Q: What sequence folds into this?
């Protein structure tokens, strides 16, 4: 009855155990975003959005974004804890986020944008290279002339709005690490409490007094930071979290009940849904383990799903969105595969190559009391570097 689900007791440290379901979960979440946007981009509202029809609160898109930030908070906090070096950390984060984002922005601006207007000459006459480059560098959605005129959501790529806030959260990890040092866990926990409390208080106040004007405290950054910082807490306290069948069932029951209440749905998703998310991430299932070894298409699907869906909806406004969804998904997955193999994976290998270089240098420079052990360590480091370079 109390059988533990992870196979390791408490949530395992990913630096020690490589069997996890993170890639599969990210792919599933990116797919949910496309499923959620399918009727919304066509109708302009959520009356056909699947999760909203069930609970009347969150959409699958909102759920997926929140879970993305939970996973990101966990993994990025882990990354800093494993290698608390400012330059290496920034390099790795930029290589993971920016190249694929930049290419997707250029595809949207140079290809999708002209296709989304009846007159391409008008598009290019209004196009500003300076504005576009500024949006690119600052991780904003591509700044272009107005497109998709007459569509319910005329944004060229409305899904990209979260990317800059994710990078902001990366900087928050760095700032906490530099300022807090050895007290990282305590400072991170206190910051999580403050951010989450401010966000929940704002939701309650706005729920009681909906006529109040918009304030800074209602900015979506508070929601995303709450998810990200909570994910970091799940990592920092992973040794104290040991999911069992009973605890998973209890968390699922509480989350399902809260999902019917607008002001409790998202806060419950962060903690009870987060518990379920990380239990599933560490649940050893042979099928998921095999799927997890494939290419990570989640980022590309997230980046390309919106423009493809909006373009298809603009060209075939009378088409059934659910029948059109498989074709849209295949096209998004195709672009995501190109992004992975041509951009993302080479950048990840560059990160690994730089890490191996550092390991080689350390192996050659650190004095080991046993010369034979030092020589063996250096040989292992050099072999790892050569193997990575050959790939």
A:
């Amino acid at each position: 009855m109390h059988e533990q689900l992870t196979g390791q007791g408490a949530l395992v440290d990913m630096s020690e155990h490589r069997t996890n379901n993170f890639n599969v979960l990210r792919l599933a979440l990116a797919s949910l975003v496309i499923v959620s946007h399918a009727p919304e981009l066509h109708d302009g509202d959520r009356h056909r959005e699947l999760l909203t029809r069930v609970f009347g609160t969150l959409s699958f898109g909102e759920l997926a974004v929140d879970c993305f930030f939970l996973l990101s908070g966990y993994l990025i906090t882990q990354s800093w804890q494993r290698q608390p070096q400012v330059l290496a950390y920034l390099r790795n984060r930029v290589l993971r986020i920016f190249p694929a984002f930049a290419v997707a922005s250029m595809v949207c601006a140079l290809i999708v944008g002209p296709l989304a207007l009846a007159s391409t000459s008008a598009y290019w006459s209004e196009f500003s290279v300076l504005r576009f480059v500024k949006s690119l560098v600052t991780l904003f959605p591509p700044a272009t002339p107005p497109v998709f005129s007459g569509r319910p959501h005329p944004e060229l790529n409305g899904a990209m709005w979260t990317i800059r806030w994710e990078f902001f959260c990366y900087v928050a990890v760095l700032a906490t690490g530099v300022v807090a040092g050895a007290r990282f866990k305590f400072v991170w926990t206190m910051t999580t409490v403050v951010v989450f409390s401010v966000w929940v208080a704002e939701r309650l106040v706005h729920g009681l007094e909906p006529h109040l004007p918009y304030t800074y405290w209602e900015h979506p950054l508070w929601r995303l930071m709450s998810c990200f910082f909570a994910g970091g807490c799940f990592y920092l306290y992973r040794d104290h979290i040991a999911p069992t069948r009973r605890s998973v069932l209890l968390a699922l029951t509480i989350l399902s009940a809260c999902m019917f209440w607008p002001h409790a749905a998202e806060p419950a998703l962060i903690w009870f849904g987060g518990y379920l998310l990380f239990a599933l991430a560490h649940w050893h299932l042979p099928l998921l383990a095999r799927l997890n070894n494939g290419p990570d298409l989640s980022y590309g699907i997230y980046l390309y799903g919106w423009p493809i869906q909006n373009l298809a909806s603009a060209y075939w406004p009378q088409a059934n969105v659910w029948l059109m969804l498989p074709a849209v998904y295949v096209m998004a997955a195709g672009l995501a595969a190109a992004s992975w193999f041509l951009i993302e994976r080479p950048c990840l290998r560059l990160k690994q190559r730089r890490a191996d270089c550092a390991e080689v240098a350390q192996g050659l420079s650190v004095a080991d009391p046993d010369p034979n052990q030092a020589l063996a360590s250096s040989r292992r480091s050099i072999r790892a570097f050569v193997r990575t370079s050959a790939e």
